[in-house]
Amino acid sequence: MKTGMSKSKTSLPPGIGKVLKRLHYPLDVILICVRWYVAYALSLRNLEEMMAERGVNVDHSTVHRWVIKLVPLFEKAFRQYKRPVGKSWRMDETYIKVGGQWKYLYRAVDKAGSTVDFLLRARRDKVAARRYFEKAIGNNGEPETVTIDRSGANLAALDALNAEREMPIRIRQVKYLNNIVEQDHRAIKRIIRPMMGFKDFRCTRIILSGIELMHMIRKGQTSGDTTRSVAVQFYSLIA
Predict the structure, then answer these.
(1) Is-above-0.70 flag for pTM?
(2) Is-contact 158 58, C-beta < 8 A?
């Protein structure tokens, strides 16, 4: 079973090698399970069955642990290679059920459809929206324009941010202009659907970041040679 990741655990960067060393499975097996889970509409039990067909006996709960341990390392590495996004953002939130309760995934894309940033929050209010904008601006720089729907919370968050700025962000509340981000939500929700429901907020946040990461790679948001396959781009993040 080949992933295109030829390095041994001992030759990887120290932080990543240290995590992998404790996982006690071949590197190729670990990485392919993590990638498949965040890249495709599969449940953990689907992966358990698929690996068994390939002669690898691994429990679905073990795959889950791999995902939780490794996805943050991939996301941190990806942030160094993420292409800059445009200055016109379309922001919206979508619903994610965690532990039987609805939580809120804040997301934005630029006018070309590139993902700006994302953040899972327990509530849908001004505080949550402001936290999202602070994260997105911190990672991507300030936008010139943000398009939102008629959400009063999102508008209040932007107004609060603008009150602290010499050059305010232009705010547009035009629903049809947000079709691009609403359509983009579907790619994330399609991967989530077979996952049998999330139970833990922290784990959900990590898994979603892995799904978003794969989505960004597919959209060509990694700097460097984007002619390489999505799989190779993913594995190269920790090479």
Answers:
(1) yes
(2) no
